[in-house]
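Morning F.,

Quick status update on the modeling queue. The single chain you submitted on Monday has been processed. Sequence for confirmation:
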Amino acid sequence: MTFPNIKLILAREVRDQLRDRRTLFMIFVLPLLLYPLLGMGFFQVSQFMQEKPSRVIVVGAGEVDRFPRLFDGDEFASELFTFPDDQRLLDVTVAPNEPGAGEPGSLEMREAAWRAVESGRYDAALYFPSDFTQRLDAFREALRGRQPVVLLCEEGDTAALAAGELSLAVPSPEIIHNTASEKSDIAEMRLARVLRRWSERVGADNLAIGGLPPSAARPFALESADVAYETPHRGAARWSKILPMMLVLWAMTGAFYPAVDLCAGEKERGTLETLLCSPALRTEIVLGKLLTIMLFSAATALLNLLSLGLTGAVVLSQIEGFGAPPVLAVFWLGAALLPVAALFSALCLALAAFARSTKEGQYYLMPLMLVTMPLSVLPMAPGVELTLGNALIPITGVVLLLRSALEGHYWQTLQFAPPVIAVTFACCLLAIRWAVEQFNTEEVLFRESERFDLAAWLRRLVRQRQPTPTAAAAVVCGVLILLARFFLGAAVGPPRDLAGLVRSVAVTQVVVIAGPALLLALLVTSDRARTLLLRQPATWWTMPAAALLALMLHPAMNILQRVVVQLYPMSESVKDALGPVERVIADAPLGLLVLVIALLPAVCEELAFRGFMLSGFLRTGSKWRAIACTAVFFGLAHGVLQQSLIASLVGVVIGYIAVQSGSLLPAVVYHLMNNTLAVAGGRITPETLDRFPALAAVLSGGPGGYVFHWQVVLAGGFAAVLLLGWFARLCHPEWPEVELSGAVPRRLAQEG
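Structure tokens below.
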């Protein structure tokens, strides 16, 4: 690989992109015009955002104005509003006491007000009960008859005082509104503010009647001081959520369209073959195109951020709580721009290489956005902070790190910068490698456009069955399992007793997990035994070796599970949902739990994930890609995040065992042993350790469960490494799909 070839390809691609007027407009012109136009539009649209009055009817008011006044003519009293202009936002109608409607505040008048709000004639109604004024008068008379010392009664008289006040309780006014109408909700909010201030004024008068000053209810006023008011970080909390997210989204958008044009567009124009026939290696071609896409991605993100910052400094700085963007935002965003642009450029390049045409390539933007948007929006959620666990999440860690830097928390930024940089760098390398593999695969580069016919596809799928499923069939199987698992869990809920636990696990494993895999194997494959890996392993020693490997890895997995829970603590809602299930498991017989929770999932899940899905993903030509994809689906099938992370790692080990042994049986044995150890570990208590001294020699109990001694963890890890090395030396059956797909890349590598 030589840099001059990469430089030539970079110059060629940049020159081609700069000749496209649409590209120039999207990258250089649109960002400079978009945000100023949006700012101008904001001022224009704000003229139509005027608040309109809420129509309110007051029922049963009677003589409430004998207390601190509530009305001023046909409006609420002006002193009940924080701002005088708010008085016009309530269009008040005081209902008269009509003949035949009963006394003021009667139930008949309440029902009439209810119907008026329900029909939409009024946005809300304020209803005073019929005895409101009388009970309030009685309450005040009781206050006048008491001496101030009574309010400071001994502890023994508290119950009597409370009982006396309870008999003089004043009925509450009622706001009648309709939550199905936004206008009614706004009217209810405005009425509540007015009544709250009126209630405070009534309370102040009551204190004066009882011989106490009004300040007794509020002896002090709360004041706040903003330490960032005179600093460059004023308003940074809001900008720190906007700017990093915009950086990610515009870097992705700026990389996608050039990538589609450089790959799928060249396929349509017929110029890709000429480039592939040149002396440049495939890796050099990929790096040249990657640098081109990175250049346009960074330019798009940079110009959009500059335009947004300048517009925000003029427009948003006029809004309370917003200031101009921090000056140091230029440095922090610029430092993050290169790795973010590299990551999305490599992803978009690989996706665009897979597309048959420009139109098809544009469709791939949606799944990329569906994955990126939650990761970039998650840091905007309340309570999400920069921790070690969040720093290890791709994209999310970058956004949180930038948010911390923009808010001025530099020590926190430096503390978590290494894990964020490491994760981002690893993701960039994997994305670049994926793009290189796409260009090294002839069947990907020269996929022909075809018209999709569902009926013809189904007929071909059934009539022209292949021995093993395709990767697309494996993805369909995984998606069906995840959807069925989600809807079943939402419809049924957690089990409450042992019988419910057995039914839930049986239905989930047999119907939801094993069912789709067995059905698809029957419909789309001709060799079911090969598809499900139901054959003799490379050697029968793999069976005890798999069980021993699970035993040796269990101490390390136990420590890893604790680390995961420490990084990503379970929320209280998840703990409450899992509580009934854990109590049922704690009271169930151990033998039944091994059968239901260990053996049944070991068989059903292995048939689905290491059987059907692994066979399908092996058609991609890479056993490690097949193992990783299967492990991801296996982890997602476990509903809880902490379980999903551990299950994904366990799935990698089980997938490796299945591939190396060429059989599903060692995978089932490992899965069974792993689940059995987890079930048995849940029964370990301090009393168990006292009863079995040998068990206490390898682990110790605690409030969070049992913990293995570090010597046991190291010894088990060393033994596991030796066992994995033994599996790596197995003479397993060759996978024809892997050998065939790997022939071309090996030949190209040799030629390079």
